[in-house]
From TrEMBL:
The keyword Acyltransferase applies. InterPro entries: Acyl_CoA_acyltransferase, Bact_Acetyltransf, GNAT_dom. Pfam families: Acetyltransf_10. Keywords: Acyltransferase, Transferase. The keyword Transcription regulation does not apply. Residues 6-155 form the N-acetyltransferase domain. It comes from Streptomyces exfoliatus. Its EC number is 2.3.1.-. This is GNAT family N-acetyltransferase. One of its GO terms (molecular function) is acyltransferase activity.
Amino acid sequence: MSAVFGVRQALDPEDREACFAVRREVFVEEQGVPQELEYDAYDATAAHVLAVREDGLPLGTGRLLLGADAVGKTGGDASVGSLGRLAVTKAARGLGVGAALVRAVEDVARERGLTAVDLHAQTHALGFYERLGYEAYGPEFPDAGMPHRAMRRFL
């Protein structure tokens, strides 16, 4: 697979569907997350980002919750966005897609005037996020049956 890819905000319906298809492949099919937990009301108002190969094949996605949607996940701070649903297809792992998606979400957060980005990381991914400047805080907790930790990076 070519390592040439781009990341953009998913602003049109086709891009949003590509985001959902990647999430279905990674979370529902690969990790066994129930579909009713994977898709939620936040999808309608979140900022989504999409990584695509130069031929248009979707490689990964992530989303940023903003404002009132993020407050419940960020300890009540409306100036902090909540990064979530970061997913990279199995075939695209190791190409830098995940890091590029995180940076794209952070760019959106900066554009919206946010001061930090929070996320709930699966514990096996803590090192990935730490390498990108995120710091874990609080105790481990279950989400969709998997252990997670809260993390934050100030912008």
